[in-house]
Amino acid sequence: MSKIKYDANQDYQVDALNSIIDLLDGALAGTPTVTTITDSSEAKIIPLETNILGNSLAISDEKLLENLNAVQERNDLPLSPSLESREFSIEMETGTGKTYVYTSAIHKLHADYGLTKFIIIVPSIAIKEGTYNSILEMNDHFTAQYNQKLSPFIYVRTKLDQVKEFIGDSEIQVMIMTIGSFNKKGKNVWYQEKEELSYSKPVELVKRTRPVVIIDEPQSVEGGVYGKGREGLDELDALFTIRLSATLPDKDSCQLIYELNPIDAYNLELVKGIEVDSPELSGETSAYIELIDVVIGKGKELPRAKVRLNKKNDEGITTCEEIISKGQDLANLTKIKSYSTVKIERVSKRKGRPPMLALSLGNGEKISLNPGQSVGGIDENTMVRAMMKKIIQNHLDNENDLRGKNIKVLSLFFIDRVSKYRIYDESGQVRDDAEYVVMFEELMEGFAKESEYEELFIDSDTGNSIDIKDMHEGYFSIDPKGKMVDTSLTNKEGKANASMAFNLIIKRKKELIDPDNPVRFIFSHSALNEGWDVPNIFQISVLRDIKSTMTKRQTIGRGMRLCRKKNGDEFERIRDPNINILKVTAKQTFEKWAAELQHEYERTGITFGKITKKVFGSELVEDLKKKGHLDSEGKPTDTFESYVNSEQFDAKGGG
User: Fold this and answer.
1) Numbered ranges of CATH 3.40.50.300 in the chain
2) What residues contact residue 458 under an 8 Å CB cut-off, 6+ apart?
3) Nearest to 532 by CA among 550, 559, 513, 510
4) By the 8 A CB rule, do 339 and 360 touch?
5) Of the four listed, 146, 248, 406, 450, which is most buried by Cβ atoms within 10 Å?
6) Are 496 and 180 in contact (CB under 8 A)?
């Protein structure tokens, strides 16, 4: 059976691991603590059948702060003036191996200090399933290093024997929990006295083990400083806690020990680069106008409207931004006939009122737009078909480019409703006339007839045509009857259905990236937007405007991981930046999409245009600062570009 090949010598992962381990430099490993419950003020509590074996490690706050500052200085991070807690944070971009780092840390902490009790806290069922399967998948890799396998288990409130094993077993114990398991004191079994545990509360037994707590995506777990998740974490009485995230919300105060942000990850070629493509539209469309803002003119100059509209060019119809004014001929500006009936009646921006654009439409209707409002546009199905056609074409072009390299190409469509892809008849059988299935298969049949793509539809082993129906597959929540259903993560039934979908995606990851598997296109629900990824996704598209909190960063997160090629029975990571490109097909222009993505990054404190020591080396950065080519924050000055391109510049020493 094929397996993922892991690399134990990736410098950035080794650095992250050492940042954890070196915090404990000088700590004294003790004999595991043993607690036997033999008495209680409550008569109904009886002795447990097993002792509680806990972690034991001695290190003073003074030494821990000294180690913390040493790690921070080494990693070019701000030094913490005092030890606020025994919680430490790591920021690593999505797709660079957070799970690998903390799994490696579990093994190393056991090897160096004999620690055996670990709890991994995750925010959702998606990440829970992904974490569990990833740890199992990495077992062979880590066994070769540490001669020790992990047997993680997912905490389930109805399986409390697992809690008893966790507290009493001398082997490494790894319990995976979601935030929902312990953030409601009045409801969670975690806080209830249970007969299976001799009428003890699970939390009271587990906290006696002084577990090492690992929090995956703490911004979604803790609920803020005073959140319910934070209260539950405090109840665990952790020996120490490691928080890992791609987007730490409290970077300035979280005792940061390692950072690998998106810019560093891209510059180090650890994730895919991103390109944005827009669908090509042809033919006439209704006149689309969206008001962005109103620009006030100078003196007697009339105010003008900054709008987004469609324009025709040699490549088709694209959406772009223009400045328009009262009375302007929009048909002449856009080269689209349908704009001839639209008249600009008034543009205004008055104090105390929102900017306004008044339009007269061809049917006699008059309409006023405020910023963000729009009128007209392209029929939704026309847009979806155009986007689907573009992503299929990009996919097939990519397959042609990678032919012979044994790299599977996958594309991902996010959709808003399962019924667009999968519908059932009265007997529960799958029908073949779902809207997106019909649209997709029609487009694929068209491409199969084109000479540049026809070989991609032939099985190279048999010479037979590949059935287009076998080339696509849906991953959605699954109800108890086995039917695909829309994803809802707001109730117990919905979460259970979603759990089956995540399991299916995660367990089939290796099968999906195998070139021998005919599935090339994946359809999934927009709500399944975290906790899973497939390395060989090269194209992503959100087919409809989905009214959810799905961000640009979540969209690309499913495909940021470097692709893998099949080599014998292993899948090897490919580092070629010319291959590792994730193309996003979006309705928006590249400029708008990229600006919104950059804004999402900047809201998390990531600075663009900054030259970092992680990428360029400490000595070189300091040399460039001394010579005035970088400012104090590491941003290039006006002389930077000309200097680094000159003969004076030596990348090893700065020149």
Assistant:
1) 30-270
2) 464, 465, 466
3) 559
4) no
5) 248
6) no
Query: Whose structure tokens read 């008495």?
Result: 39
Q: Are 422 and 474 in contact (CB under 8 A)?
A: yes
Q: In what helix (H) or strand (E) does residue 174 lie, and over which residues does it extend?
A: strand 173-178
The residue among 30, 26, 46, 29 whose CA lies nearest residue 38 is 46
Q: Which amino acid is at 477?
A: S
Residues sharing a CB contact under 8 Å with residue 244, sequence separation 6 or more, in sequence order: 89, 90, 91, 92, 98, 101, 102, 214, 215, 216, 217, 218
CATH number of 381-603: 3.40.50
Structural tokens at position 341? 């009936």
**Token pair for 214:** 């690992």
Strand partners of residue 565 = 572
Give the mean model confidence (pLDDT) for residues 378-399: 88
Residue 586: φ, ψ to 5° = -135, 155
- C-alpha dist (Å) from residue 8 to 12, 133, 267, 336, 583: 11, 19, 21, 58, 29
Contact criterion met (CB below 8 Å) for 248 and 89? yes
Contacts of residue 607, defined as CB under 8 A and 6 or more positions apart, other chains included, come to 633, 635
User: What is the pLDDT averaged over residues 467-490?
Assistant: 71
Least confident of 186-200, 577-591, 625-639: 625-639
Joined tokens for residue 224: 């803020």
The domain 30-270 belongs to what CATH superfamily?
A: P-loop containing nucleotide triphosphate hydrolases (3.40.50.300)
Residue length of the chain: 655
Give the three-class secondary structure for 142.
Answer: helix
3-class secondary-structure state, position 119: strand
**Mean pLDDT, residues 426-443:** 90
Which is nearest to 317 in space by CA: 589, 577, 114?
Answer: 589
The average pLDDT across 269-282 equals 80
Q: What percent of the chain has pLDDT over 70?
A: 77
User: What is the dihedral angle through the alpha carbons of 391, 397, 400, 401, rounded to the nearest 10 degrees?
Assistant: -110
338 in Cβ contact with 283 (< 8 Å)? no
